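Data availability (excerpt). The following record was deposited with the supplementary files.
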Amino acid sequence: MKITNHLNLPQPIVDAVQNDPYDSGNSDISVTRLIAPPRQVALGITHKDNIVEDCADRLFSLMGQAMHHVLERGGDLEGERIIERRLYADIGGWKLSGQIDIWENGTLDDYKFTSVWETMNGLKEEKIQQLNLLAWLCRKNGIKVNRIRIVAMYRDYSKSKAKFERDYPQHQIGVLESPLWTDAQVEAYAKERIAIHQAARINLPLCSPEDKWERPTKFALMKEGAKRALRLLDSEEEAIEYAETKKLAQNGKITKGHYVERRQGESVRCENYCSVAPFCTQFNPIQES
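Predicted structure:
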């Protein structure tokens, strides 16, 4: 991978990003890659020497690595507390690896720098999957786990919003519990994902709308001068029909003072968070396979 520096960030930051110590170890796939889109992972392997990322896009990852160094200051107490350990287990014909942040007294915690909105509605499914895979790796290596959590450190936290918004987190650090799967549930999930990734190495699959974090195009019924939509609908026709029910349209035309705004959909991961997008014919059809 090549790291660029389009914003001319200080060289020590660039060097720190370039000297990323991450190593998935001697395994066929890591937990992080297992839950990632198979197409993205396969393209990453094929084009690993040609991938280009800008230093600025790696800063949050760098912050996460810094937190791991802080956690290590707490001390790894064998049998009582385990910090930053990579574990391995065989499943589905592959060796799976995953690195835990902190285990203590049967509780496995994974620390994340994240934005507030990512946890406002609870843990995302991929976080639950990740935690349960790590918990399974612990158990396979003789480490008992009876509780799993995400410790979320909000990088965009606002004390003023916490005072006035009921659902806003009340502290800059939030601890979110995850449901704990049985070994049978984890193994069924892991075997299914491994089979999909194995097949992707032979025949490249397409990413699903969920893989792409796809946001569909919407049509917003707006009042002139207002920032928020009165209603979001799937088509312009539906927006006009809704406006008619509210006496804001007549004979298929929006009345004065209101209008319909088209909000173009997007594939958020593809456009903003996928380093192999330049090599992907699904996202960029002009590229050669």
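Summary of structural features: The CA atoms of residues 85 and 115 lie 26 Å apart.
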